[in-house]
């Protein structure tokens, strides 16, 4: 079992379609002038949530997304037969975190971008808790258009970031744990379930017989 | 950077269009590659591109590569993999994005189940019978290194063994992307060659490695990552990224007799920065690169080239920088195959978009 204390959390609201202008404006605060115009929804959102919790060069960062750069993927594919280099760059996972860091030329030492559907959040939490004494776990989705009916894109947009530390501090907001024993009565859950629990500060247990279980609790 | 637990490679293998890891290693040792100039459908005004392919890029459901990948993974198939103490880490830069491309461009709905990362991996899981403890990593061309690091963290957290798998296959999607960036331009790659213009080639490949704690096999001495975040597709021109990834490994590399398998795609600026930086911080360490023979196998390159390095170590002969020629960016570049006997450590490097760097040191003393 690995226990870690949550010392900072930032989330965006869920949204459908393109990111609402007021949300984009709020999340873009502090961005270098002109940078926001070139950023995707997930890039902007990742800037917002990472800035809110603070992210330094030495923080190990684990990023998780099921569909990653949905809009950029769609736009790049639609640019054929004259593919766009800018859209190609933005379509490559993990472009969202890269957009949020490249605009400040802010390096990261250890960056582990992950993906996946069922079980992905369990895998990401286990990785974040085992990569070192503290880490940042971030993730999210942006809304797709033509990929959504095909089941290859997200119908809802959201982002989150949290900082976890193995040592308890006075500022602990809650606890995130991983155990190798599965918990009966709980399912694997989705990334959106996890983001919602962070946003609403509700407890959550996700479990998979082959992956163990994660438990999120709040003070 | 991540050497908290004693990790060894119990077994590994790969496939390229030249064959399995032994066959590919033997071909590289005699300077033989698999690159061909291939016209890519759907790219307006694009010349034939240098690619190393298993077969043509026709869409298929299930994907054309699935049977070939399942055959590679036969030694690590079965439900004992993917349990809580035997996690599987799967990496790719593309997973099934070729299927998404063909769905949109040709209206094919039969390819949709394979179009997402999890859909692509589920097809692999079913074909080899793994259980469900699967972690997917994707970080462009350092994807395999990220998977190895995540697997190492799982081992340090108590896993008994970890299986790391990496695969990438070429499609118009990825060929079009690199062609749009003008670095896949019809010329053959010459890694570390001090010319006036550069070019890369793309290749197909897959590989796996079984990692254990303290077992028998080649020992992972250290691993490191560094993400410059200087520019999306360019390195910091001062070359600091190439040094920063190795910096935390200095203690482990001190007093070791090192040879280096560089990233070496064939682009001019990155090739110069990599060769010059390595010559400065690891003087005397020969530098080789294999993408001039098998192309850049994208997210799988770290795993494919790790398996080839393991065969080189076992066979006592390290392939040279196939496909390239003098003048080179540094005197460290080895154009021809050389013996392993004077060395006890392989330093394996990969780079990716965002100025991502990955390094893995493999002890073979």
Task: Outline the structure in words.
Chain A has helices at 21-27, 41-53, 70-78, 85-91, 95-102, 120-130, 191-200; strands at residues 2-11, 61-65, 111-115, 134-141, 158-165, 174-179, 204-208, 212-218. Chain A is α+β, with helices and mostly antiparallel strands and 219 residues long. In chain A, strands 3-2-4-5-1-6-8-7 form an eight-stranded mixed beta sheet, sandwiched between helices. In chain A, helix 2 (41-53) crosses helix 5 and helix 3 (70-78) runs antiparallel to helix 4. The longest helix of chain A is centred in the first third of the chain and has 13 residues, at 41-53. Chain B contains eleven helices and 16 strands. Chain B has helices spanning 21-29, 66-72, 97-106, 117-128, 143-156, 172-180, 240-244, 250-253, 268-281, 291-294, 301-315, and strands spanning 7-16, 19-20, 36-38, 49-52, 88-91, 134-137, 161-168, 202-203, 205-213, 218-227, 258-261, 287-288, 317-318, 338-339, 345-352, 356-363. In chain B, strands 1, 2, 5, 6, 7, 9, 10, 11, 12, 15 and 16 form an eleven-stranded mixed beta sheet that branches. Chain B has a three-stranded mixed beta sheet with strand order 3-4-8. In chain B, strand 11 (258-261), helix 9 (268-281) and strand 12 form a beta-alpha-beta unit. Chain B is globular, with a radius of gyration of 19 Å. The chains are: A alpha+beta (219), B alpha/beta (365). At the A-B interface, helix 3, helix 4, helix 5, strand 3 and helix 6 of A face helix 3, helix 4, strand 6, helix 5 and helix 6 of B.
Structural class of chain B: alpha/beta
Number of helices of chain B: 11
Estimated helix fraction of chain B: 25-40%
Largest interface: A-B, 61 and 68 residues
User: In terms of per-residue confidence, which ranges of chain B show pLDDT below 50 for 5 or more consecutive residues?
Assistant: none
Strand order of the largest sheet of chain A: 3-2-4-5-1-6-8-7
Radius of gyration of chain A: 17 Å
Strand-residue proportion of chain A: 15-25%
Put simply, the count of helices of chain A is: 7
> Roughly how many Å apart are the termini of chain B?
21 Å
Low-confidence stretches of chain A: none
Order of helices and strands of chain A: EHHEHHHEHEEEHEE
Let me know the average pLDDT of chain B. Answer: 96
* Main β-sheet description of chain A: 8 strands, mixed
Please give the largest β-sheet of chain B.
11 strands, mixed
Helix content of chain A: 25-40%
Gross geometry of chain B:
globular
Number of strands of chain A: 8
The chain-level mean pLDDT of chain A equals 94
**Global morphology of chain A:** globular
């Amino acid at each position: 079992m690995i226990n870690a204390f949550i010392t900072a959390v930032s989330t965006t609201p869920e949204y459908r379609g393109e990111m609402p202008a007021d949300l984009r404006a709020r999340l873009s605060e502090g961005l270098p002038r002109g940078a926001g115009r070139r950023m995707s929804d997930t890039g902007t959102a990742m800037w917002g949530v990472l800035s809110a919790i603070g992210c330094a060069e030495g923080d190990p960062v684990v990023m998780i997304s099921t569909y990653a750069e949905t809009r950029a993927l769609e736009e790049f594919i639609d640019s054929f037969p004259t593919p766009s280099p800018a859209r190609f760059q933005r379509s490559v996972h993990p472009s969202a975190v890269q957009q949020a860091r490249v605009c400040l030329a802010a390096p990261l030492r250890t960056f582990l971008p992950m993906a996946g559907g069922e079980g992905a959040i369990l895998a990401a939490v286990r990785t974040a808790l085992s990569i070192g004494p503290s880490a940042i776990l971030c993730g999210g989705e942006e809304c797709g258009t033509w990929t959504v009916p095909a089941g290859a894109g997200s119908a809802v947009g959201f982002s989150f970031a949290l900082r976890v530390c193995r040592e308890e501090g006075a500022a602990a907001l809650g606890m995130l744990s991983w155990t190798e024993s599965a918990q009966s009565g709980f399912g694997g859950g989705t990334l959106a379930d996890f983001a919602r629990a962070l946003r609403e500060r509700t407890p959550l247990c996700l479990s998979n017989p082959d992956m163990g279980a994660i438990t999120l609790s709040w003070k | 950077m991540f050497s908290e637990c004693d990790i060894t490679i119990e077994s590994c293998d790969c496939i390229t269009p030249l064959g399995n890891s032994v066959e590919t290693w033997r071909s590289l040792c005699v300077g033989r590659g698999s690159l061909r100039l291939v016209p890519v459908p759907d790219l307006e005004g694009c010349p034939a591109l240098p690619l190393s392919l298993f077969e043509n890029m026709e869409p298929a459901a299930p994907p054309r590569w699935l049977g070939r990948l399942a055959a590679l993974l036969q030694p690590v198939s079965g439900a004992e993999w993917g349990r809580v103490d035997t996690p599987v880490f799967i990496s790719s830069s593309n997973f099934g994005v070729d299927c998404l491309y063909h769905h949109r461009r040709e209206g094919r709905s039969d390819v949709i189940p394979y179009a997402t990362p999890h859909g692509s991996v589920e097809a692999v899981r079913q074909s080899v019978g793994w259980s469900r403890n699967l972690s997917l990593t994707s970080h462009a061309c350092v994807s395999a290194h990220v998977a190895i690091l995540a697997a190492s963290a799982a081992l340090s957290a108590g896993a008994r063994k970890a299986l790391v798998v990496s695969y990438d296959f070429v499609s118009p999607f990825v060929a079009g992307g690199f062609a749009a960036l003008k670095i896949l331009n019809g010329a053959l790659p010459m890694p570390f060659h001090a010319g006036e213009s550069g070019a890369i080639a793309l290749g197909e490949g897959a590989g796996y490695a079984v990692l254990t704690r303290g077992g028998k096999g080649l020992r992972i001495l250290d691993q490191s990552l560094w993400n410059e975040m200087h520019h999306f597709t360019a390195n910091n021109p001062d070359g600091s990224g190439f040094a920063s990834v190795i910096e935390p490994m200095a203690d482990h590399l001190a007093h070791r007799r090192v040879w280096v398998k560089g990233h070496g795609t064939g682009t001019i600026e990155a090739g110069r920065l990599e060769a010059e930086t390595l010559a400065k911080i690891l003087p005397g360490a020969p530098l080789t690169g294999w993408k001039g023979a098998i192309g850049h196998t994208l997210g799988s390159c770290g795993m494919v080239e790790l398996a080839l390095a393991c065969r080189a170590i076992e066979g006592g002969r390290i392939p040279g920088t196939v496909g390239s020629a003098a003048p080179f960016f540094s005197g460290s570049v080895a154009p021809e195959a050389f013996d392993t006997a004077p060395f006890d450590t392989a330093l394996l490097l990969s780079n990716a978009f965002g100025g991502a760097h990955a390094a893995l040191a493999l002890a073979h003393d």
